[in-house]
Amino acid sequence: MKRLVPLIITFVVGTVLILSVFIPPMEGLGENFTLFFDIIAVFAFFLGGGNLVRVHFQKMSRKSDDWEFSIVTLVGFFVMLAAGLFKIGNPGDIASSVTADGSLFQAIYRSVFVPLSSTMYALLAFFVASASYRAFRAKNREATLLLVAAFIILLGSTPFGTMLTSWVPESWSIFQIPNLAVWLMSSPNLAGQRAIIIGIGLGVVSISLRLILGLERTYLGDDNA
Amino acid sequence: MLSPLMAITVQDIGITVSLVFILLGLAWLAWRSFSGKEVDRRIIFLFIFFSVAMPVIFKISFKFKATPIVNALYEKIESLPNNSTVLISYDFDPAMAPEVQPMADALSRHCLSRDIKIVYMCLFPTGQGQLEQTFSTVVRNEFPEKQDGIDFVNLGYKAGGEGVLNVIVTDFEKMFPTDVNSVPYSEIPIFDNIKSCKNLDLIISIGGGRPGIKEWVLFVGDPGNIPMAAGVAAVVAPQLYPYYPNQILGLLGGVKGAAEYENRLRDSDPKFADMPTPATTMMGPQTLAHIVVMSFIIIGNILFFRNRKRGEIS
Amino acid sequence: MKFISIYFVLLVSLSVSAQTNDNDSTSLLVNDSLTIKIAPPTSVIVEDYKYDDADNLQLHWVPSIDDMPQDGKVVRYRIYQSTNNGSFVLVDSVNFSVNMKKIEGLAIDSTYQFMVSAVSKNYEAKSNKTITIQTEREWINFNLASLFLIALLITSAVIYFIETARRGKELFVRKIAGLEAVDEAIGRATEMGRPILFIPGIHDMDDVQTLAAITILGKVARQVADYDTKIRMPVARSLVMTAARETIKTAYQTAGRPDAYNDDMVNYITDEQFGYVAAVDGIMVREKPATIFLLGAFFAESLILAETGNSVGAIQIAGTARPAQLPFFIAACDFTLIGEELFAASAYLSGEPKMLGSLKGQDVGKAIAMGVIIVGVISITLGEAYGIEFFSNITSSIQSFFTVNK
Questions:
Q1: Where are the domains of chain C?
Q2: Predicted ipTM?
Q3: Any idea what the Cα angle at residue C325 is, between residues B297 and A21, rounded to 5°?
Q4: Chain C within 8 Å of A159 (Cβ-Cβ)?
Q5: Which CATH topology does C171-351 take?
Q6: Best of C55, C59, C81, C92 to disrupt the B interface by mutation (most B CBs within 10 Å)?
Q7: pTM of the full structure
Q8: Phi, psi of B273, deg, nearest 5
Q9: Range B68-276: architecture per CATH
Q10: What is the pLDDT of residues C347-396, one digit of tens each?
Q11: What is the CATH number of domain C25-126?
Q12: Cβ distance C280 to C305 under 8 Å?
């Protein structure tokens, strides 16, 4: 019974969502199922928040490794929660925007959250360099092609690309590096990406059918046996 | 008369020092590679740090010509009559902001200077904070005469992604009964003649994640036959080329796209001569970083071929 | 003086009445010398909107003869609606040059009539009224017939091959290196006595990539339970946490070691993309896992995670259906499941014939796609280059078949 009910729900919802594409009176049902998921996901926030608090309190009370970091996590969590929930420092009343200028929420957002997120994202610049150093080696024909393409794209997105090939006449403009970079991205690269996307589309059909037909049950905690 | 030496600026010295430092360092690494020594990833990180930091410190920047795909969006906004309404959706978070916030600011500046009304909204919860940034740096700072509700409106964030788009394509009020300041939809003058996205003259999605421009095209642009444009992170741009020019009339891709738009705007009218151009400033570091990455690829290959020659790699 | 005033009043009244009589469907907003007079739109036709749930009508009109973009006289068209023979109210407006509008949100049991007006800066010219009409409901959207056919064909192929496999026919499925390496990767962690880190992407359970990751987790957890290896799974979504716990718990129960399972194997970090990445990177650096699985929906964080994993010397198996992130995984990971391989993984790992059959069904879809691409490329090339009508017709037939008009 524990497995049967979710399987029936999956079958019914999956079938209805497919049919709602082709049967106009069922379109509303499809939209409603999407909303149901959003509502459930909102309640799940409590589940996640609860787990976070429990895990870090446990770490602190047991003085596990690096338990000091848990203090930072919990302080951050509760301060941000209070700033948003009680709209601390908001210039307007309780109905005003949570991110209004002057609010504590907005202040923390700008001075802590934005720099921290940007820092994490900026790490990409370093990792792209180290990954390129390791990966772009002319080990065989395919890797050499990849290497040359990468070079053209990198050069094409700098002013040096334009400078290096500015002598190429306009009638041969495709061989100017920036144009060559755009061609690489919009033709060979796109063709490859489309092939991958077609494969992904078919893969989604296949796994969806397995889920709807109940062949795939691992996500329900079943062993498919 | 000034001697040639007097004409040398701090910027010139900065550019020279940066290039000499980086080139000498790379040459040293290349020489090490010839003797078969791998480059530690921390050295690579150090070079990237310098190649990014030095142009920021010495303000090294380059000039850019707008490519057709960027120019198309500029021309579209130029062609809109006064009092048209454009929607700009902030579908990004702070992490992506350095790349796409300059686009959002430049587009807002362009629209407001042409008396085009703007409806702001976001599909990312953290987009609302980014929206506030545009409000404080561009809208309120450069256009103090523009009035909230009449010349622009901020609808804020609404959860639901594609679900939100599915609804606003036919009815704004259903999803946004009020703006962020709790003013009811019916009392906002900008919406007097606007019931849904279909009444808008242009929609621009700024972002790169999901929900983003693809979802906008799928749920709003295509079904509603509404002109769409986008500004996205560089990594996402290649996937959007097939949408241009039929489903997306213009596309700004990454910092370079933003820099091209800033340059186009600045060159178009003297009133924009002193406008901030963060993306153009960022292109300095990006250019040098690209050169460093290319140099490391070369160094990596030198090492690879050297080792293969000596039979250390089969 | 009095006489002159009366004379002017009479003159104005006469001119207004003459204008009103002259064209019953035209109304005046402002009567001054600067009025930009324009002609109304004509031939306003309303008809049922096809393939809907009786909630839309389609309105067409011939634009005003003054609607020319270069002179900008007409700025907008306004649409007025009368419901159940009531008075006309403004319901919508569209830009100049537009000549059609889908009227939405209507009811099946009401009657409707419409009027369209062209609007200049200070003048409005209304058209005649349309006929009275009711909406109609269609039960099947024939606009999507081609999509239905393709879906039916691929679905039937998948089900056919599942059935074929069920009846015991041997099906060949090519080897997928990334999945062949799963056993070795888990074994390595066991030998080294270090944990396995499983990252299911940053999307929720409504993303099929996350579902695919959870199904692979089931197979991995089963082996982990058998070998008594430690598994850690930090997640970015609460629902994923619940589903993953159930999956791992079942795997431990099936392995006969329910006591070895504990809920802390899976823990929620944050929904915030880079907050999650920071936490996961921290776990990698501190705990130095021997094996890392990066399977699911990944975005800008893909390379940050994969490079950090690489720097701690972990063997990494990655997989995503986000084409933009695949190059990063290929550059930084040992094995990468490209797109469809991620969805095939659970079937492949289970080795069950009926599951493998579903993979075989996909090949029919691929054959169709390849066939159509080849025919399309040949026909469009010959049609365009040599102007052969036969090939142009083939091209347009293919295009119209694969164009979805919703």
A1: 25-126, 171-351
A2: 0.89
A3: 155
A4: no
A5: Rossmann fold (3.40.50)
A6: C92
A7: 0.79
A8: -55, -35
A9: 3-Layer(aba) Sandwich (3.40)
A10: 888 888 888 888 888 889 999 999 999 999 999 999 988 989 999 999 99
A11: 2.60.40.10
A12: yes
